[in-house]
């Protein structure tokens, strides 16, 4: 796998349709993705002192965070509305290679900040709900 640009790691939000069209959340400067899994331990006396895990069991989740400059885009407004309402929405992470990850996420945190004579910025955190599909 070749080196990929961080600027090509994009967070997109769906338009609410049954088959959503995705728009890039404009102004993101940094993005981060974490895939988490909780193991189910099935160690017994017969394990010979070694921990054994049950494949395919446990809880998996995806966490996404990003920070950027507020531009007032329609996609950002939708993220803000979702955060205020506490509703799930469709999000897609796309990568320079053409690969993507799509799923339902909840905005778990949305912060805005601004300095006098500077840009207005924001940070956000998303937590998955249900399966996240990689394509």
Can you characterise this structure?
With 135 residues, the chain is mainly beta. Helix content is 9%, strand content 47%. The protein contains one helix and eight strands; from the N terminus they run ββββαββββ. The protein is elongated.
Report Rg: 18 Å
Mean pLDDT: 90
The helix fraction, in percent, is under 10%
- Molecular shape: elongated
Structural class: mainly beta
Oligomer: single chain
- Low-pLDDT runs of 5+ residues are none
Beta-strand fraction estimate? over 45%
**Total DSSP helices:** 1
Terminal CA distance: 16 Å
Biggest sheet details: 8 strands, antiparallel
Number of strands: 8
Q: Output the helix-strand order.
A: EEEEHEEEE
Topology:
Blueprint: E1 10-14, E2 22-24, E3 28-38, E4 59-69, H1 74-85, E5 88-94, E6 100-114, E7 120-128, E8 133-134
Antiparallel strand pairs: 1-2, 1-5, 3-4, 4-7, 5-6, 6-7, 6-8
Summarize the structure.
It is built from 1 helix and 8 strands; from the N terminus they run ββββαββββ. By secondary structure, it is mainly β.
Short key terms for the protein model shown above:
135 residues, 47% strand, elongated
């Amino acid at each position: 796998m070749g080196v990929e640009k961080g600027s090509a790691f994009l967070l997109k939000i769906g338009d609410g349709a049954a088959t959503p069209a995705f728009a890039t959340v404009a102004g993101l400067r940094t993005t981060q993705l974490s895939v988490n899994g909780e193991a189910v331990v099935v160690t017994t006396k017969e394990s010979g002192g070694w921990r054994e895990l049950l494949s395919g069991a446990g809880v998996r989740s995806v966490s996404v965070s990003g920070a950027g400059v507020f531009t007032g885009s329609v996609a950002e407004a939708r993220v803000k509305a979702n955060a205020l309402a506490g509703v799930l929405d469709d999000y897609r992470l796309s990568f320079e290679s053409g690969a993507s990850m799509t799923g339902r996420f909840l905005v778990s945190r949305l912060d805005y900040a601004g300095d006098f004579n500077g840009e207005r910025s924001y940070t956000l955190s998303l937590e998955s709900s249900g399966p996240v599909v990689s394509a």
